[in-house]
Each structure stands twice: as C-alpha cells, then as structure tokens.
Amino acid sequence: MTISFSSHIAHELQLPERQVAATIELLDLGATIPFISRYRKERTGGLDEVRITDIDNRLAKLRELDARKASILAAIEKKQMLTPELKARIEASWDSHEIEDLYLPFKSKQTKRSETARQRGLEPLAKMLAAQRSSGLPGSLPAFVKGEVRSEEEALKGARDIIAEWVNENGAARNRVRQAFRRAVIRSKVIKGKEEEGVKYKNYFQFEEPLSRCQSHRLLAIRRGEAEGFLQVSIAPTDEESCLESLYRLFRKSDGACWEQVKLAVQDAYKRLIRPAIESEQAHSSKLKADEEAIRVFAENLRQLLLAPPLGQKRVLGIDPGYRTGCKLVCLDAQGNLLHNETIYPHPPKNERNAAERKLQKLVEMYDIEAISIGNGTASRETEQLVTNIRYPKPIKIFVVSEDGASIYSASPVARAEFPDYDVTVRGAVSIARRLMDPLAELVKIDPKSIGVGQYQHTVDQSLLKKSLDQTVTSCVNLVGVNVNTASKELLTYISGLGPALAQNIVDYRAANGAFQCREELKKVSRLGNKAFEQCAGFLRIPNGTNPLDNTAVHPESYPVVRKMAADLHCTVDELIRKKSLRTAVRLENYCTEQVGMPTLQDIMNELDKPGRDPRNDIKEFSFSPDIHTIADLRAGMILPGIVTNITNFGCFVDIGIKENGLVHISELADHFVSDPAEVVTLHQHIRVRVLDVDTAHKRIQLSMKGIQEE
User: Exposure string (b/e) for 167-202, b if CB count within 10 Å is 16 or more?
Assistant: First the structure.
C-alpha cells in the first residue's frame, strides 16, 4: 500500500511523490525525523523536519484508516454480504465518513424501534410506502393490524421507523446533511442554576457564532465549560428547513398519502438519527481542529523555550526566593554540580537583610561565582533588588528565570536520583540555576505540560499533545546536539535512535569506563548496534577527543570524505578545520558521489567552518522597571520593559516585574493587522509595552505594543 500512501500524501501536501515515497521508505526502515532531515537530504530532496513530520503524521492516519477498512471488509465478508462493487468502493475511499456510511447498513442494528417493527412484520408495509406507487395508503394496510400491532396508526408508525432507518443509512442523505453542516452555528448557554459557580465562562452564557469562524481558544473554552457541567452546547445548520427540503427532494417520488408517511419518516430520521450523528461528527472534527491549533501554539512556545539562549558553562549561584521560608541558595560549578547550599532570610518576617548581603558576598567570592540566577516566583523582585544592590569583588551577571515546573522537577524521581540527600527546596534551587546555564538540558527533565507555556493543555487530546511535544523536544535536542560525556540520561533519551534504555546504558558505560574518547567507542555500549549508532552518532559530541570531527555534526559515515579533502590538500583533518584558507581551496564538486551529494557536502563545510557550534542565540541581561513592585503601582499610559512569557492565538502574556502577567491582545501587538501573534513576538523576547488598563479587583492588566520601539 506504500505507493497509494505516497501518492495520496504527495497530493495532499503538494509535494513530489518521489520525495514522499523516499521519506516513507526511510521511516519504515527505522530512521528518525532528525536523522532524515539532517543526513538524508539527497534521498528526500532536502525536505525539512516540518515536512517530514507532516508526512509521518499523515502516514500514521492513513495506516489507521487502512486498518479500519480491512476490519470493515472482514466484518461484511463474515456476513456474506460483500459484493465486488462494495469492496472496490471501500478500498478506493480515503474519506473516513464515506467508509463508515458504506458500512452503516451492515452494522448490528442499534435502533430498537426499527427492529421491533420488523419483528412485528411491518417491513413489507415500509417497502410499499417507500415505493410511493399509489396516491392513497396501501389497501393491504388492515392486514398488518394483528398481534402486537393494535391499530393502523401503530402499523404506519412502525413502518415509518423502518423507513427512517433506511434514510439514516443512505449515504447521499447523510452527505446532504453534512453539506448543510458546513454552514453550521455553534451555540452555548449556561445551565440554569450554574450562573454563579460557572462565572469564569460568563462570555459563553449566551453565545452564538458560525462554527467555521470560532477560534480554537474559544471553542476549547466552550467545550471545557460543557465538560465541567456549566454550559449546554449545540451545533446546527444555519437553515435546517433548507436541509430538510434537500432530503425531501431525495426521497420524494410522488404526491399523496404514501409520500406524507415517508415525509414524516424523513423528518424523524433527520431529527432523531442523522442530525445527532452529523452533529457529533462536527463536534469531533471541530474539537480536533481546535486541539491541533492549540497544540501547534504550545509546541512552538515549547520550542522557543527549549532553544532559549544558554549562559553556558559558568559558575552560578541559584536563588529560589521566598518570604517566610527564606531564599534557598545553591552554588554550582561550571558543569552544574552542587557545591554548597544554605538559606538566607532577607525579607519579612525575619528581615535579616544585612546578614543576607554579607552571605551573598561571601559565597560569590568563595565559589568564584560568575552569574546569579533568580526564580521569578514569590519575592522575586525583592530578591532581585537585594542582589543587584550588593557590591561584589568582581562584575556579576544577574538573571531572572522562569520557575515553571521547578517544583514538579524537585519532587520527581529524576531529582531524587540526582540529589538523594537533599530536600525539594534545594533541588528546586539547583533547577533554577541550571536553567540559566542550559535551559534545554534542564527542561527535558520536566513534563512539557508543566513548563507553563501551553494553552488549554489539559483540555486537548492528550495522545496528540504528547506526540507533538515529544517530537518538539526531540527536534530541539538533536538540533543543538549533546556532549555525550556530560549529558544526563534524560537528555540522551531524546537523541535520535536512543531512548531510555540505551541512554541509561551510555551513562552506565561512562561511569564504568570513564569518558568516551571517540564516537566509535559508542559501539561498545551494551545493545547499541549499528542501526542505533547510525541514527545517534551525528548528534553526540565528544570535545577534546581523539578525532576532531567527533565534536562536530559531521556524521561518521562522511569522515572518509573529509579525510580525502585533507589528503588532497596535503594537510591533517585538524588543520583543515583550523585553517579557513585550506577550506576555501576545496572544490566540492570533486567529492560528489551517488551517496554523498552537494547538500551533504555543503553541510560538512558549514560544520567545519564552525565546529560544534551552538545554534542558540547569546543570552542578554534584562531589568524590570525599578518603580513597579505590585499591580497597585501601575497607571494607564506607563511604558514599561517586559518579557514575553506565553503566546496564544489571541495575543501574548508579558511579565512586567510583578506577580500578575499582563495581556497584549492580538489587536494591540502592532500598528498593522496581525493574524498570528507568533509572527510578531517570540517567547522570552524583551519588549516594551504601554499600560492600557488595570483591573485591580480581578488582577487583569491590558497592555499594548502599538507605536512603541522594540528594545
């Protein structure tokens, strides 16, 4: 079926089928998306991760649909009702609704009313009425009044139940209703008596909007309100009368008493069977679309967070601020190892400010601290002011980092394994310090849903969310690459071709044998075979190893090409890397083969220009306004510095240095029309905002970026 899959996907994604087929083949051979996009450009025609992911996701859906078709064909075959024509129609269809419509007449009957009517012998009457061959009712109608059928009206009602089932099973009828639902309206209203309890859904107490225009965040809010028992939600065509008229035209054969009975059956089928079924379809498909959009926003936010600029290997003092419980301090070496921890109490109720200042000065000097990382939670601003006003023996960089998920990490098995002798407060402070050094390496230890950059993450489809976020983390880790000699098991787990078991085996090998000296040594790791080595080697770095190429993204399979380049220039590989004049003398076309094309050769040369380069930006220091401490200090018209903390499809949230984040609505992001906030802002971007309105009672702050020069 691969050819059919590749053809269908190529048409859907507007890609050449050759590229799609090659990608599917690589995926089926066990290649990962990062590996394919980085090291198999010749095979795929240079498809990037986004396109390969699209192909992978669509392939999974088509295979799921293919399995469903096989199940349906087997079920119909078992009933000995599968005709060659029906089989061909099912096999040729890629529309799940069409496939289910074709199967519907062969399902075990779920409509008790029609089955009861059949048992009472009323199917012949239903056929007579449906044929509409006479202007009056069938003359044999009295003959059906027998047994449990006590009157002609009961006989007609039973016949209508059977006809209603036939209407429901008619694919053309269902498609006409689907067409009508393309212009559907979603409505919500508050459930009586739930007004006060469900006040957070007040905007949807009496809500109506065309379903096609209902943005994902609104639809998810409505569905969550429905799930929590506060809202009643419905989806219906804008013109149900026209929908019914369309059905009448499909089943009307003549005028008269028979048609009137059929008309009643059509009305019943629409209201009782087809409409609820198609409404469920629409509810599911619209929810899925909203889920996918919310997940897309979440994944993009997560990508930006994971790829946030790292401080690098510096000696860091981490502070988890607090009032009553004090500020937890940790001192880490350049590799992130914990050297010291203690607690200071500079804030109320103890107010030991002088002692805290002396302690910080002493620790900075004692552990040769180069930077201070402060969590952005409770008492963050006060702690930042304390730290900033201290005179240190040398310049110290001071940063405020997000605490989101730190408490989750500190209580996790990962944290307990890392720091079995320390409590959660120390572990949380270590996480805050390490997030400054390398956000990616630290955040992979935390469930992405707990990092605080999502939108309705507990409302969307959890399997889709997990798959997307896992793909995002994997993409980021492999984009950056990791030092195999210092990376944690959690970080190694996301490397192409590894996973938890092989990651643990690498850590165990490292503990038993010391640092890896070359990539080839990875093959000595238990259960790390040739396939896993092929997939992972290019993403694992070995600084100061025996082979300088092992600290680059050049894959070991391309080492012979680099060695030939060096030999042709009568130099070593190390000299080729160090001397630009040698690299500029390389004529890439001389090294093209069937296996190694120009895309790979260009990647090799780019890597040799900047071996082991980190694709992330350089970190920048940032300061909030010193005059703003609480929401009470805000006034309309103020222009303040801020940091983007979350991006949604309706705008972005900005930290302006107080407990409450402000919202820049999408209409206030720029002086021009903005359809997607991600086009204007990025996560953790340093911006300047104007205060539009402050609602102190509800702790809501409205901000604007219009007419303000960005920093």
Answer: bbbbeebbebbbebbeebbbbbebeeebeeebeebe
First vs last C-alpha separation in the chain = 54
Pairwise CA distance, residues 11 & 383, whole Å: 57
Q: DSSP alpha helices (H): ranges in 120-273? A: 123-131, 152-168, 171-181, 216-227, 240-251, 257-268
- The model's pLDDT over 647-704, given as tens digits with 9 standing for 90+, comes to 998 999 999 989 899 999 999 999 999 999 999 999 989 999 999 999 999 899 999 9
The pairing of strands 316-320 and 371-375 is parallel
Task: Please state the φ and ψ torsions of residue 342, each to the nearest 5 degrees.
Answer: -165, 180
Which tokens go with 27? 């995926």
User: Cα separation of 492 and 511, whole Å?
Assistant: 15
What's the pLDDT score for residue 104?
92
The CA angle 55-56-59, to the nearest 5 degrees, is: 80
E-assigned strand segments in 429-565? 482-483, 540-541
> What pLDDT score does 709 carry?
63
The 10 Å Cβ neighbour count of residue 322 is 19
Tell me if 112 sits within 8 A of 272, measured CB to CB: no
Q: Give 332's strand partners.
A: 316, 338
Q: How far apart are CA 20 and CA 16, in angstroms?
A: 7
Query: At which residue do the structure tokens 């192409």 appear?
Result: 496
DSSP 3-state helix, strand, coil percentages of the chain (rounded to 5)? 55, 10, 35
Contact at 8 Å (CB) between 143 and 170? no
Q: 434 is written with which tokens?
A: 């390490």
Sign of torsion over alpha carbons 702, 707, 710, 711: negative
Alpha-carbon dihedral angle through residues 241, 247, 252, 256, given to the nearest 10 degrees: -40
CB neighbours (10 Å) of residue 375?
27
Which backbone phi and psi does 670 adopt, to 5 degrees? -155, 165
Model pLDDT for residues 374-432, shown as the tens digit of each residue: 999 899 999 999 999 999 989 999 999 988 888 899 999 999 999 999 999 999 999 99
CB atoms within 10 A of CB 488: 18
Q: Encode pLDDT of 596-642 as tens digits.
A: 999 999 999 999 998 878 888 888 888 899 889 899 999 999 999 99
Please return the burial class of 362, using the count of CB atoms within 10 Å of its CB with bins 0-12, 13-18 and 19+. exposed
334: helix, coil or strand? coil
Cis check: omega of the bond before 349, within 30 degrees of 0:
yes
C-alpha span between 341 and 325 (Å, rounded): 15
Report the distance separating Cα 531 and Cα 497, nearest Å: 8
Q: Give the helix/strand (H/E) hosting 41.
A: helix 41-44
Query: Residue 333: is it exposed, middle or buried by C-beta count within 10 angstroms (0-12/13-18/19+)?
Result: middle
Residue linked to tokens 């996973």: 499
Q: Strands 338-344 and 686-695: what pairing? A: unpaired
Pairing of strands 700-704, 662-665: parallel
d(CA 9, CA 11): 5
Which of left, alpha, beta for 433 (phi over 0: left; psi -120 to 50: alpha)?
A: alpha
